[in-house]
Amino acid sequence: MVNTVEQLVDIPSQLVEIYLKEEHWHSFKMTPESALRYHKTRYENGSIHTYEENGEVLGYYERYFDDDKCFLYNVWVKETQRKGKVFKALYKHFFKTMPENIKYITGEKVKLG
Description:
alpha+beta; disordered N terminus
């Protein structure tokens, strides 16, 4: 899939809406402006990976690498999609794109599947 400038603006905006309205587990919420900067940067640098259909974000995960460790942070799948292909596709992508040197996976989420 080819990303256009329009998508790069649209996807981070959707991520902010998800963050502000659907991710109730955060103990601290950024302002909408800070959240947009955060999500735009993470999406553009490849830390946030999304699953989209018809331009709508149906799920995403966020991860970082440090030496031989992978830190898995936010994982979100739209409520109506949680038992279907979206979670499975994100799960497969997470492991398929894992660098070979990674020995440890840790983060905020205890359950991956």
